[in-house]
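User: Sequence recovery, please. Input:
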C-alpha cells in the first residue's frame, strides 16, 4: 500500500465517553478501520485483571494487535483508559515505529463529570462510582506530539467531528474492497 494507515488513540478515565466516541468514529469512517477496545481485549479475550502486580500481558497484546491491523493496511482506532503507568511504554513504541499518521486524544474530564456520564449508560457495566474513584487519574497524558484534549464541555458529536477532521479519517477513502468489489456488499447495494 503506497500510503500508510492512520493510528488514532482515544484515551480517558472510565465513564468519559471514549468507547461511544470510538465506535461512532469507526461507524462513520466505514470499512477498513479496525476498532480495538482495551476492555474487550483485556477482559474478554485475555480474561486478565488490570493490575501491574501480575506482570500483565494486555499492554503488549493490545499493541501487537494494533500493529497487526496497521500492517495489513487498516486504519486503527484504539481506545481505553490505557493508563500511562502500564501502557506508556508500549504505546510510545507503537506510535514511534508507525510510519503513518498518529493522532492521540484524551478526554479531559473531572471525576464528577465521569460519574455523571457513567450514570447515563443504558447497559450494565458492573462497577460503581466508588470503583471509578479508585481508577481515576487526572490528565494522564502520554506526551505525544500533537496530543489533543477533549474538554468535558464537548458532546459526542463535537468529539467525533474533532477526531474525524483532525485525523483525516473524515475525508479518507475506504481501505478495503468492500463495498466496491465484495459480492456480499454489492448485492446489498443493488437492493
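Assistant: Recovered sequence (191 residues):
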Amino acid at each position: 500500500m503506497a500510503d500508510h494507515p492512520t493510528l488514532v488513540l482515544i484515551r480517558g478515565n472510565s465513564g468519559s465517553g471514549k468507547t461511544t466516541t470510538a465506535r461512532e468514529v469507526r461507524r462513520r469512517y466505514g470499512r477498513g478501520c479496525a476498532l480495538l477496545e482495551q476492555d474487550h481485549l483485556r477482559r474478554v479475550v485475555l480474561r486478565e485483571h488490570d493490575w501491574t502486580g501480575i506482570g500483565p500481558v494486555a499492554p503488549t497484546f493490545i499493541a501487537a494487535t494494533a500493529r497487526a491491523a496497521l500492517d495489513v493496511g487498516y486504519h486503527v482506532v484504539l481506545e481505553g483508559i490505557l493508563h500511562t503507568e502500564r501502557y506508556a511504554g508500549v504505546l510510545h513504541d507503537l506510535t514511534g515505529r508507525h510510519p503513518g499518521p498518529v493522532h492521540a486524544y484524551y478526554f479531559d474530564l473531572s471525576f464528577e463529570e465521569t460519574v455523571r456520564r457513567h450514570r447515563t449508560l443504558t447497559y450494565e457495566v458492573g462497577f460503581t462510582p466508588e470503583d471509578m474513584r479508585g481508577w481515576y487519574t487526572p490528565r494522564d497524558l502520554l506526551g505525544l506530539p500533537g496530543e489533543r484534549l477533549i474538554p468535558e464541555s464537548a458532546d459526542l458529536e463535537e468529539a467525533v467531528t474533532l477526531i474525524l477532521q483532525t485525523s483525516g479519517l473524515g475525508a479518507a477513502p475506504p481501505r478495503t474492497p468492500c463495498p466496491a468489489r465484495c459480492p456480499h456488499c454489492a448485492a446489498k447495494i443493488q437492493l
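The mean pLDDT is 88.
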